[in-house]
Amino acid sequence: MTTWLNMSLQDGASPIMEQLVFFHDHVLMIMLMITTTVSYMMITLIRNKQTSRFMLEGQMIETTWTIAPAIILVFIAMPSLRLLYLMDEVHNPSLTLKAVGHQWYWSYEYSDFTKLEFDSYMIPQEEQQESTFRLLDTDNRIVLPMNSPIRMIVTAADVLHSWTIPSLGVKTDATPGRLNQTSFSISRPGILYGQCSEICGANHSFMPITIESVPAKHFINWVSKMSE
Description:
This protein is α+β, with helices and mostly antiparallel strands. It folds into two domains: about 15-50 and about 55-90; about 95-225, Immunoglobulin-like (Sandwich), CATH 2.60.40.420. The protein is about 30% helix and about 25% strand. The strands form two sheets. Strands 3-2-1-5-8 form a five-stranded mixed beta sheet, with no helix packed on it. Strand 1 and strand 2 (about 105-110) form a beta hairpin. The two termini are about 35 Å apart. The model has no long low-confidence stretch (mean pLDDT about 90). It holds the Pfam family COX2. It is a multi-pass membrane protein.
């Protein structure tokens, strides 16, 4: 989760998010290179007092500053397209989870199990404990196995919502009457937090998402307990 004075992205909890962070740093370095070069050239031109009647045109430099941006765009586009295809691809999922957005809470259904569904509300401030986070913790957490491909199906029952977990690199719109699909794999155990990222009414700020990532053995025990 984010912390105070955090100037960067959250630590990636999935392979896709780690690749997104790498891509962010890659593009940032290219931007830094462009900014440094253009700033140096502008300062040099401003401070240069020499004039020459032979510098009215320059075929070579015009060709260079036309081809160079195209090459730079290729270096940005190739990893970007690769990430887009990786994020869109749904491999053989070991688990399917359906999220339904309501005003203003989430409902979850584990499609691979019978009668395993629940609602998830934000814990009110007066009921919070010292170990919980304000506006982020819920009364019923999503429990998912780590290192397993998860298929996520997102929809809404009333208005537009958005199911978002920043540390997983997942953000999927919840649209009434439509099923949107995404996939992810959690690479480490822990508790991951997110919130609704689509303005959906007065209590839009009070729709947190809490995922508890556990080993597969603990997940099986949790399913057995919830199915009793």
